[in-house]
Design brief:
Blueprint: E1 4-9, H1 13-24, E2 29-33, E3 44-47, E4 50-53, E5 60-62, H2 65-71, E6 85-88, E7 91-94, H3 99-106, H4 111-121, H5 131-139, H6 141-156, E8 186-188, H7 195-201, E9 206-209, H8 217-221, E10 224-229, H9 233-236, E11 246-256, E12 266-269, E13 278-281, E14 293-302, E15 311-312, H10 316-326, E16 334-336, H11 339-342, H12 348-363
Parallel strand pairs: 1-2, 1-10, 2-9, 6-12, 10-16
Antiparallel strand pairs: 3-4, 5-8, 6-7, 11-14, 11-15, 12-13, 13-14
């Protein structure tokens, strides 16, 4: 049996980049994944020339030169800019909220007119305690009802008054016509899809898919001196301190015999009566001209142990459980990293950066 320096559990961004960096530094690595493919939630499959984002849309964006240049070693990014639309009460709106959105709502045409209107509709709440209070204090009740309330309730399975304001503060609100969702210096979609990035990252590294590390931990750990774990931290410790809460998603993919279904990559559905939160048309990520299209409808779900974990519920209770689990990690034997292990929502560039920092630390220890 071959012995390795590192057993890396999970072939997503953290695991694959860590494996690449350590391999290039001279270490031997075995990467395993319980899924039938590499790439984690970034995985894309090709459908007649259309790269389908199997686990929801992934738009790479960053303001870090280090992260951007590293990713460009493995792919070429196109010039896609994320400009989703919102469907509310059978009307379409520009999104994120910008000056044109406010024109659609109120007829205001200048930043000055928009500021005056916003001051009129804002509700004075000195210390907003939750999503509802924060949004109403910033933009008033109409925007809250039309854009936030229904979507947030569906996404989190809780009324916005039961959710911390922090989860919505990252949503841009602009008094210009800038409808770019992100404010980073760099943005794009990898030409050739995300899966090709992982194939290059893992080239020359031993990879085994369809392997559930937790079901045969003793055998798998005997293969390596050190374990890099990117799975769920509570599952690693057999839920001994309690189960961390997540939100899950269900995806319905449909190939359609039409050139264009909705004219944009993503439409968010904010009415609570509409079950999906968004509809993705994948060809628009790469400006596809195919005669067919692939559409994905995304439905939020209550998580249980039979479903995939997508969004951590980072309230005080869950964060305290996570910290207790984190204190149990044997850092001499194990390295934990990534969204599931850190119980934190990450954008892709944050995972890339953390994998580079952690591997560099390991190389120079």
């Amino acid at each position: 049996m071959k012995n390795y320096d590192y057993l890396i559990v999970g072939s997503g961004l953290f695991g694959s980049i860590f494996a690449r960096q350590m391999t290039d530094a001279g270490a031997s690595c075995l990467v395993i994944d319980k899924r039938s493919h590499i790439g984690g939630n970034c995985y894309t499959r090709n459908d007649g020339g259309i790269d389908v984002h199997e686990y929801g849309p992934h738009i790479f964006h960053t303001s870090s030169d280090v992260v951007w240049n590293y990713m460009k070693r493995w792919t070429t990014f196109n010039h896609f800019v994320y400009r989703p639309k919102v469907s509310s009460s059978d009307s379409l709106f520009s999104f994120p909220i910008n000056l044109f959105t406010l024109y659609q709502l109120w007829g205001v045409k200048t930043p000055q007119e928009a500021m005056i209107k916003l001051e009129q509709v804002k509700v004075n709440i000195p210390n907003p305690r939750n999503v509802e209070e924060w949004v109403i204090s910033q933009v008033g009740e109409e925007i809250y009802e039309k854009f936030i309330k229904g979507y947030t309730t569906k996404q989190w399975g809780r009324h916005p008054t039961k959710l911390p304001a922090s989860i919505v503060k990252r949503l841009p609100i602009r008094l210009t016509h800038d409808d770019n969702y992100f404010e980073d210096c760099y943005q794009g979609i990898p030409t050739g899809g995300y899966t090709s990035i992982f194939e290059k990252l893992l080239n020359g590294i031993d990879v085994e898919i369809g392997i559930d590390y937790l079901k045969d931990r003793e055998k798998m750990e005997s293969k390596a001196k050190k374990i890099v774990y990117t799975g769920a931290i509570d599952e690693f410790f057999e839920y001994s301190l309690g189960t961390l809460e997540w939100r899950s998603l269900k995806f319905e993919h449909q190939t359609m015999n039409t050139k264009d279904y909705q004219g944009v990559a993503v439409v968010n559905y904010t009415d609570e009566s509409v079950p999906q939160t968004r509809v993705i048309e994948h060809k628009h990520f790469t400006f596809g001209k195919q005669d067919h299209t692939v559409v994905t409808r995304e439905y939020p779900q209550k998580w249980d142990k039979t479903k995939e974990k997508f969004y951590p519920v980072n309230d005080d209770k869950n964060n305290e459980i996570y910290r207790s689990y984190r204190d149990m990690i044997d850092t001499n034997r194990y390295i934990f990293g990534g969204r599931l292990a850190d119980y934190k929502y990450y954008d892709m560039h944050q995972v890339v950066g953390s994998a580079l920092v952690r591997s560099e630390k390991e190389i120079h220890k």
